[in-house]
């Protein structure tokens, strides 16, 4: 009998979330046209499936995002897997190519590459692709992570255009990444830098991650003569990029559901401690359940007492310290639960992954990506 833990990935939820984002962008385009009369259309969507589709599986991501305009990721192996799975649309390498040999794969598998350094431009200059390689030249507009500094951007973009004239590079796009689209600071400062530095340059634009796509869709709209792309990630998986707004408020559905079962129960007396370190001590007689899930499965070790969890359809709480393979739950709200009772750790019939992450002092992204390989995966349509 296998250990009673599994994760279910809902392909239909992935498709639903993509449709929600596209509808949101189309509404923004319609509102803009009604407000200023200028033609505006919704941008194209790169569905970001890096880190094996945020832990959901690359194959599941390809299936769920079949109606995306393109896929975006970091890893060449994942890009190749997408092609071999039948994806024929654009693929964007978000960190570009790391060495000259990567350009051969970019050529063979028709990959679009971000260019964020002079070294990458040098590699392109030495390349001899069978067909021109599409690129997005990245501006560091204030995040100070990847990208050309504002003072160096014009020359970098001009060099990319020169490579275009030589037949090495195809389309030359412009892009940046926002550091605070999910925060009160917003995008105004970085957007101003991007517009000042890249305004008037040719090529498509890509600037919006999940937070910016949901909160500032108007800045991503395509205008006559200017193609535009957004790059939503976490929201496509049914989690929220915001601390002050949950995923359900946008109509998003969780695509990952982590479930297990009660494998033992204990009756405690006042003063009895639970788990390693005895971090939880009963102040009265109570009954607890032991769940077959721990940090070796990807559940956060720092999710302490009070972390929400659902047992047999009833919301309750985690108690004490999470172990490698087990955790304890309070059965006071669900006295009928015994060995074999179903447990939802996060997902469609449990707390949201963001709630669990908040209790553990982290973010939903980390929990989704940290799911352990030993947890059996079931794919639902």
- The H/E string reads EHEHHEHEHEHEHEHEHEEEEEEEEEHHE
**Portion in helices:** 25-40%
Q: Whole-number radius of gyration?
A: 24 Å
Tell me the span between the first and last alpha carbons.
25 Å
Largest sheet: 8 strands, parallel, barrel
Low-confidence segments, given as residue ranges, are none
Rounded average pLDDT = 96
Major beta sheet, strand line-up: 2-3-4-5-6-7-8-9
Number of helices: 11
- Report the sheet-strand fraction: 15-25%
Number of strands: 18
Describe the protein.
The chain is of the alpha/beta class and about 375 residues long. It is built from eleven helices and 18 strands. The chain has helices at about 10-35, 50-55, 60-65, 75-85, 100-110, 120-125, 150-165, 190-200, 210-215, 355-360, 365-370, and strands at about 5-10, 45-50, 70-75, 90-95, 110-115, 135-140, 170-175, 205-210, 230, 255-270, 275, 280, 285-290, 310, 315-320, 325-330, 340-345, 375-380. The strands form three sheets. Strands 2-3-4-5-6-7-8-9 form an eight-stranded parallel barrel. Strands 10-13-16-15-14-17 form a six-stranded antiparallel barrel. Strands 11-12 form a two-stranded antiparallel sheet. Helix 9 (about 210-215) links the parallel strand 8 and strand 9 (about 230). The mean pLDDT is about 95.
């Amino acid at each position: 009998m296998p250990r009673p833990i599994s994760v279910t990935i809902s392909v239909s939820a992935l498709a639903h979330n993509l449709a929600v984002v596209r509808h949101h962008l189309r509404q923004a385009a319609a509102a803009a046209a009604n407000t200023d009369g200028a033609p505006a259309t919704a941008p194209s969507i790169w569905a970001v499936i890096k880190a094996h589709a945020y832990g959901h599986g690359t194959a599941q991501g390809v299936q769920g995002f079949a109606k995306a305009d393109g896929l975006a990721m970091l890893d060449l192996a994942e890009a190749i897997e997408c092609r071999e799975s039948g994806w024929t649309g654009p693929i964007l390498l978000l960190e570009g190519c790391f060495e000259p040999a990567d350009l051969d794969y970019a050529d063979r598998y028709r990959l679009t590459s971000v260019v964020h350094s002079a070294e990458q431009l040098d590699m392109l200059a030495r390349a001899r692709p069978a067909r021109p390689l599409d690129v997005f030249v990245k501006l560091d507009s204030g995040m100070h992570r990847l990208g050309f500094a504002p003072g160096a951007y014009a020359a970098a973009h001009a060099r990319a255009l020169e490579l275009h004239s030589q037949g090495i590079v195809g389309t030359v796009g412009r892009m940046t990444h926002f550091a605070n689209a999910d925060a009160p600071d917003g995008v105004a400062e970085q957007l101003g830098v991007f517009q000042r530095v890249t305004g008037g340059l040719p090529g498509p634009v890509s600037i919006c991650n999940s937070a910016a796509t949901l909160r500032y869709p108007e800045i991503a709209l395509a205008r006559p003569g200017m193609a535009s792309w957004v790059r939503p990630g976490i929201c496509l998986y049914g989690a929220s990029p915001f601390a002050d707004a949950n995923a359900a408020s946008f109509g998003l559905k969780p695509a990952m559901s982590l479930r297990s079962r009660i494998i033992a129960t204990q009756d405690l007396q006042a003063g009895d401690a639970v788990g390693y370190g005895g971090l939880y001590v009963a102040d009265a007689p109570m009954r607890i359940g032991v769940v077959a899930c721990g940090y070796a499965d990807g559940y956060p070790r720092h999710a302490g007492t009070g972390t929400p969890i659902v047992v047999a359809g009833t919301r309750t709480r985690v108690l004490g310290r999470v172990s490698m393979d087990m955790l304890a739950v309070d059965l006071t709200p669900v006295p009928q639960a015994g060995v074999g009772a179903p447990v939802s750790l996060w997902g469609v019939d449990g707390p949201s992954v963001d709630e669990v992450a908040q209790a553990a002092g982290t973010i939903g992204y980390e929990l989704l990506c940290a799911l352990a390989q030993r947890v059996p995966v079931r794919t639902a349509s």
